[in-house]
């Protein structure tokens, strides 16, 4: 008979007693997210790629686990922008970009390079300089040749030109347009193709998801580039959307670009809502994510859907649109939201966890050192509530809990079961409870599937 160790509360940590394991484990009634098929596997079965924007420094712990396991493509959120890679003229910093590319390769993921020619996040030496058009052209060519050349063979697709249009379909007044005219776009594509002939080359913009004046301009540009033999392989529809406002013409718009003979990618998907989130808004957000992904699934030349950050703790939205947020498929504690299941369902997944009206448990690692780690489990309820809870999981690599707080945890062999403390059994609708633990590990520390029962 196996024995189990009991850990409860910081005060009792280290005072573990031996108790019998028998009867401690009840079968879970609400399967938690980790048991669901990863999005990348669902996408692959549809012939699609699912991606996320990432920050290199965060690619450890739970963030790294989810980025590596759920997604088949990474886009550096900022790491490949000109201001990041060449902050001082002639001085290059590829650290974060290299880190993301290495992570992607280690996890069998594509990388979408983002972005080579943009009006924003350029280094001040470039934007403050006074350049003739010949100088500007040469600076741009060198930038593209250097960056694309550095990652030749390692980048599936480049957002070569980012956000070239105004809302009315006229060209945006930028350093590039003002200095070089609209020909900068064809030149940038041509130079990028010369530096990496295998990379797919995109023009990427926002508010071009539906049929409108701006997407008409993009359509006409792509058509003329194709006619002129310029290497253009795809268009990126960023899809920074507002709750309940997925354009009704999204699929039609994707299809018309596909019919021009280019690929389409949804490159920066998020759906922001007025805070606070509630179960009604989260259900709408699920529907929105689902309809965007479904529109891509419906068009064979739509090759990739990328979310612009996968966790609400890692989104550009909150600081840019005060009062808005909760725009991504995972909450700030890395628990999957209904939106996650919207993506999953659109990719053909069967949802084992009711996406609304349920409580879920999410396991994450917040700190890890050579012999140990700190983890936590967050129990979240949306449209449901609990008056007590128990979470169980099985460690796959010999991890051993040494201490727990805000729960009573027992471990018997590889099996762990944690029940609420006297003061935190209640999880109200729309709220969450977190407990933590320290544990030892060696070799590897895979994230287990957790069951809430
Ligand atoms: O603005 C949302 C996206 C629109 N399409 C192009 C994308 O490249 C763009 O991404 C965002 C990043 O997600 C933000 O992280 O671009 C922003 C800049 O326009 C990025 O914000 C910047 C902040 O403005 C800086 O203060 C900060 O130092 O992120 C930097 C790095 O965290």
CATH topology of the largest domain: TIM Barrel
Named CATH architecture of the largest domain:
Alpha-Beta Barrel
Number of domains: 2
| Class from secondary-structure proportions | alpha/beta
* Content of β-strand: 25-35%
Strand order, biggest sheet?
4-5-6-7-8-9-11-12
Q: Can you offer a commentary on this structure?
A:
- There is one protein chain.
- The chain has helices spanning 9-12, 39-45, 61-70, 82-85, 95-106, 124-127, 133-150, 175-180, 183-195, 213-227, 250-259, 279-297, 317-320, 338-346, and strands at 3-8, 18-20, 30-31, 49-54, 73-76, 110-117, 157-162, 200-205, 234-237, 240-242, 263-274, 302-307, 324-325, 358-368, 372-382, 390-394, 400-405, 407-412, 415-420, 432-440, 450-452.
- The chain has 453 residues and is of the alpha/beta class.
- It folds into two domains: 2-346, TIM Barrel (Alpha-Beta Barrel), CATH 3.20.20; 358-452, Sandwich (Immunoglobulin-like).
- Strands 4-5-6-7-8-9-11-12 form an eight-stranded parallel β-barrel, surrounded by six helices.
- A hairpin with a 2-residue loop joins strand 18 (407-412) and strand 19.
- Helix 7 runs parallel beside helix 9 (183-195).
């Amino acid at each position: 008979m196996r024995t189990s160790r009991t850990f409860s509360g910081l005060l009792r940590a280290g005072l573990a007693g031996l108790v019998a394991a028998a009867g401690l484990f009840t079968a879970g009634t609400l399967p938690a997210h980790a048991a669901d098929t990863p999005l990348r596997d669902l996408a692959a079965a549809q012939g699609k790629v699912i991606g996320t924007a990432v920050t290199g420094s965060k690619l450890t712990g739970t963030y790294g686990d989810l980025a590596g396991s759920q997604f088949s493509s990474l886009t550096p959120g900022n790491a490949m922008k000109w201001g990041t890679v060449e902050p001082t003229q002639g001085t290059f910093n590829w650290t974060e970009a290299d880190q993301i590319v290495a992570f992607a390769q280690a996890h069998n993921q594509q990388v979408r390079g983002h972005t080579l020619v943009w009006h924003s996040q350029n280094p001040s030496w470039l934007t403050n300089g006074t350049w003739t058009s010949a100088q500007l052209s040469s600076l741009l060519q060198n930038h593209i040749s250097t960056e694309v050349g550095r990652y030749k063979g390692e980048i599936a697709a480049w957002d070569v030109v980012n956000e070239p249009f105004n809302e009315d379909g006229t060209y945006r007044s930028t350093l590039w347009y003002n200095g070089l005219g609209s020909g900068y776009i064809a030149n940038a594509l041509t130079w990028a193709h010369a530096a990496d002939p295998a990379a797919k080359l995109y023009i990427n913009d926002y508010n071009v998801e539906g049929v409108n004046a701006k997407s008409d301009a993009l359509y006409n540009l792509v058509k003329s580039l194709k006619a002129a033999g310029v290497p253009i392989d795809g268009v990126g529809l960023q899809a920074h959307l507002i709750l309940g406002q997925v354009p009704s013409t999204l699929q039609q718009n994707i299809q018309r670009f596909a019919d021009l003979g280019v690929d389409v990618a949804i490159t920066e998907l998020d759906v922001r809502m007025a805070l606070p989130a509630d179960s009604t808004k989260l259900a709408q957000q699920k529907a929105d994510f689902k309809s965007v992904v479904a529109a891509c699934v419906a068009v064979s030349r739509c090759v990739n859907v990328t979310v612009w950050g996968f966790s609400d703790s890692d989104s550009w939205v909150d600081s840019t649109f005060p009062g808005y947020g909760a725009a991504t498929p995972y909450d700030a504690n890395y628990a999957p939201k209904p939106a996650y299941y919207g993506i999953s369902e659109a990719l053909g997944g069967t949802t084992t966890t009711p996406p609304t009206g349920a409580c879920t448990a999410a396991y994450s690692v917040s700190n890890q050192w050579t012999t140990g780690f700190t983890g936590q489990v967050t129990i979240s309820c949306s449209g449901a509530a609990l008056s007590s809870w128990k979470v169980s999981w099985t460690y796959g690599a010999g991890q051993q809990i040494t201490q727990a707080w805000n729960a009573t945890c027992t471990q018997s062999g590889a099996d762990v079961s944690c029940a609420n403390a006297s003061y935190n059994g209640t999880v109200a609708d729309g709220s969450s409870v977190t407990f933590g633990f320290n544990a030892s590990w060696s070799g590897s520390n895979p994230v287990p599937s957790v069951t809430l029962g």
